[in-house]
Design brief:
Length: 214
């Protein structure tokens, strides 16, 4: 019997080691620009490193593999995308903004087709968005539940399927936060303080040049 060439053995070993490693997913940052009437306030996103670098790691029960899901960077992107559309002025300097949004990730769950015995990769993300005024007074805590799924067909890899499910979950999260921001009178009431009624007379004028549909 001819011995197996060392080069072939090393290649097989590398493939086996790669197969034993975790599935690593970078969530795609593809988010459509929201169509919103911008409110005449300034806003800022205060995303700390725990949020912006958030990574979820989990080992599935046998015969499942370990997964490493990068959640933070794409979460920052969808929130920036939404807040920039919702307000006349948006930036990263919380000290000069009327409203400061400070997000956190409470939990992440996911499911593979092998687990659920379906054709779908699924992802659940629970966010909390704390809202502050420019003086640091907390105005609200908004829980945002996000869910997304992607059918396991015509996909190049399991990582792609999970990444698409996470992207859809974040789009769902953006829709949830957009609902919290849909009423300018409510935002005005938050800024006035506890117990203030969201009277229609307090509705701020639209931003100059803002002619997009709500």
């Amino acid at each position: 019997m001819n011995p197996i060439p060392k080069r072939l053995l090393s290649g097989l070993a590398a493939l086996l080691l790669a197969g034993c490693g975790p599935n690593r997913v970078e969530t795609p940052s593809r988010f459509p620009k929201p169509v919103m009437q911008p409110m005449a306030y300034s806003a800022a996103l205060d995303a700390d490193s725990a949020f912006s670098r958030y990574v979820h790691q989990e080992k599935l029960p046998p015969p499942g593999k370990a997964w490493t899901l990068s959640i933070g960077p794409a979460s920052v992107d969808w929130m920036k995308n939404l807040l920039a559309a919702a307000f006349a002025s948006f930036g990263s300097s919380g000290g000069t903004a009327d409203l400061v949004f400070r997000p956190s990730i409470d939990s992440v769950q996911f499911s593979t087709p092998a687990q659920s015995r379906t054709e779908f990769y699924e992802a659940w993300i629970k966010y909390t968005v704390a809202v502050f005024d420019r003086g640091g007074r907390k105005l609200a805590d908004w829980p945002i539940a996000a869910y997304g799924k992607r059918r396991d067909k015509s996909l190049a890899s399991a990582e792609e399927g999970m990444g698409e499910a996470l992207n859809k979950a974040m789009r769902d999260g953006a829709a949830g936060l957009a609902l919290e921001l849909r009423d300018p009178a409510r935002i005005a009431a938050l800024l006035r303080g506890p117990g203030a009624a969201p009277a229609s007379s307090s509705k701020p004028p639209p931003a100059a040049g803002g002619n997009r549909a709500p």
